[in-house]
Amino acid sequence: MDTIFALASAQGKAGVAVIRVSGPQALAAGAELCGRTLPTRGMTLCTLRDAAGDPLDQALVLSFTAPQSFTGEDVVEFQTHGSTAVVSAVLNALQEVQGLRMAEPGEFTRRALENGHLDLAQVEGLADLIDAETEAQRKQAQVILVGGLGKLAETWREKLIRAASLIEVTIDFADEEVPVDVTPEVTALLSDVQKDLESETAAVKIAERIRSGFEVAIVGAPNVGKSTLLNALAGREAAITSEYAGTTRDIIEVRMDLAGLPVTLLDTAGLRETDDHVEGIGIALARRRAEEADLRVFLAEDDEVLDVELREGDIRLRPKADLRSDPDGAISGRSGQGMDALIAHVSKVLTNRSAQAGIATRARHRDAMLTALESLTEAQQILQRGPEFYDIAAEEMRSAIRALELLVGRIGVENLLDEIFSSFCLGK
């Protein structure tokens, strides 16, 4: 396998830059730049030099021998000063070392997967951790990265292997000293896994929202202060405001961190009947996004009939509290009245929902678990038909096991890898 190298820290000027080398020639390349043999595992301070012997930088050099490294290969990391000139000089020097080449995006992590140091779910967890913007996203990614989903899948897999083994022993050794009826134990094992899968698949939607962000739509008639409220919540002029109805015709989105959760606020077009074709398109889009949103904040008078039906958890407030003699139950983005209460309410609702999130976080995870669940349901039904159908039930169990192996990338995911790793930077 080629020896690869890349900048592992962020591009641009910094106090320290980290340049990573991985592969069979990593230690030799490190020794060539340092001018002396590196320890097989440890750190050393040395002056890096190019092929002509000219000094490049003084660096802290860390070496890791296989398999005790991130990739499972020999790895050397150069911690240099973080100027772009130093980084370029060191990368150019590594380019001149025979047998080395620049890494492709995600290639270090891909090697960790291929060498069994990470499963596919952990790779996805690492990608999520790098992209995490809020505390909830960080915590969720960490659970996946340390192998939480893989451990859960392995527990299910072991139970299914046990169940399939009992059935297959009955099939293969029907005339020997084996339990005559293994159905009760097999049924119990399958039921345990089914229950867990049902719970986990139901919780994927919330986990996905923690990854991508909850959507909170501000809904109401024209000129009730939706855009002003959005701007106040965002702390900037994200949406145009005016006294003319129909100013907002598209969906304005603002990303926020509320109570550690990623939240996207949506300012929608005012809901009303209109002959303006463009405004009508905006209103139709507003209704659709309001239906899809996780939570809606309605600005409306108490006696006003809403165009969009209220759901559990939705918030209804009277608009323009600053112009009212009785501001109870009202809000104003202009004066800030009711803002703290709204933020606290939204945070509480979404925090309660996020507590229902499972370990699985992606549609791919859900699809694999649903496939396994479908096979187990089929196996349970077939078992009730008697021993003469045990071979068919065993095949359904094996199908469920394959689906769980797909979940963590043991089989059948080669077509996914290029897409997954393309999102990583060169140094990962």
Description:
The chain has 13 helices and eleven strands. α6 packs antiparallel against α7 (183-212), α7 runs antiparallel to α11 and α11 (363-383) runs antiparallel to α12 (390-407). β3 (42-49) and β4 form a beta hairpin. Strands 3-4-5-2-1-6 form a six-stranded mixed beta sheet. The protein has a five-stranded mixed beta sheet with strand order 8-9-7-10-11, with helices on both faces. It folds into three domains: 3-114, Gyrase A, domain 2 (2-Layer Sandwich); 135-209 and 362-409, Up-down Bundle (Four Helix Bundle (Hemerythrin (Met), subunit A)); 213-354, 3-Layer(aba) Sandwich (Rossmann fold). The protein has helices spanning 26-34, 84-95, 107-114, 120-131, 135-145, 148-172, 183-212, 226-234, 277-292, 339-354, 363-383, 390-407, 414-421; strands at 3-7, 14-22, 42-49, 55-64, 75-82, 100-102, 214-220, 252-258, 261-267, 295-299, 315-317. The chain starts with a strand and ends in a 7-residue tail after the last helix. With 428 residues, the chain is of the alpha/beta class.
How are the elements arranged and paired?
Elements: E1 3-7, E2 14-22, H1 26-34, E3 42-49, E4 55-64, E5 75-82, H2 84-95, E6 100-102, H3 107-114, H4 120-131, H5 135-145, H6 148-172, H7 183-212, E7 214-220, H8 226-234, E8 252-258, E9 261-267, H9 277-292, E10 295-299, E11 315-317, H10 339-354, H11 363-383, H12 390-407, H13 414-421
Parallel strand pairs: 1-6, 7-9, 7-10, 10-11
Antiparallel strand pairs: 1-2, 2-5, 3-4, 4-5, 8-9
Helix pairs in contact: 4-5, 6-7, 6-12, 7-11, 11-12
